[in-house]
Amino acid sequence: MTPIRPTSRQNLILGLVALCAPLGDTCLSRGMTTLPAISLAHPMSLLGAVFTPWIGAGIALLIGFFASYLTALSWADLTYVLPATAFGNVIVALLSKYWLHESISWQRWAGIVLITVGVGFVAHGPSLTERPAAEAHASAGPAQEAGGGQVR
Predict the structure, then answer these.
(1) With 50 as the cut, is the pLDDT of residue 55 above it?
(2) Which of 22, 31, 44, 117 could form a disulfide with 55 if both were Cys (CB 3.0 to 4.6 A apart)?
(3) 3-state SS class at 51
(4) For residue range 7-35, what is the model confidence (pLDDT) as tens digits?
């Protein structure tokens, strides 16, 4: 069996998965540093925070992450898509250091390197588990067998 290679459009979706979450998280952090501490006892302050520009941008980017993540899961296995999110650790560290001016210890950098190397080992598998035809037919379910849905 030859492994199924993702198309350029699918690679773009994986790129969005890898970029939108760390960019969104960084925007949320940037926005929250300009506000006083928020407590769940005062929900109106939380609602007010949502409408600040940096937090609004962060929420929009995280919605983009979630949409691209769901899209990727519609054509690939979780074990293929999830490693794309792990590269976000590198992006978050770089944005935190150079944009938010946070200090990052050597232990955190070492952890990021270990995670990234580990993801490199995991990422070289097929994007979709190939199943024998009989198993794929059995997992389709009665509605799809009767023409009520599509099988990927």
Answers:
(1) yes
(2) 31
(3) coil
(4) 889 989 999 999 999 999 999 999 999 88
State the pTM of this model: 0.76
Is the distance from CB of 86 to CB of 119 less than 8 angstroms?
A: yes
Tokens found for residue 113: 């390197």
Provide the token pair at 18.
Answer: 């890898």
State the residue range of the domain holding 124.
8-145
Contacts of 50 (CB under 8 A, 6+ apart): 56, 59
Q: Domain for residue 53, yes or no?
A: yes
Task: Give a yes or no: residue 150 inside a domain.
Answer: no
pLDDT tens by residue, 87-98:
888 999 999 999
Count structural domains, the chain. Answer: 1
Residues 105 and 141: their CA atoms lie apart, in Å, by 51
Pinpoint the alpha helices (H) of the chain: 8-32, 43-50, 53-75, 78-86, 88-98, 106-122, 133-139, 141-145
124 is a domain residue: yes
Task: State how far the Cα of 50 lies from the Cα of 143, in Å rounded to an integer.
Answer: 42
Query: Please, is 24 exposed, middle or buried when counting C-beta atoms within 10 Å of its C-beta (0-12, 13-18, 19+)?
Result: buried
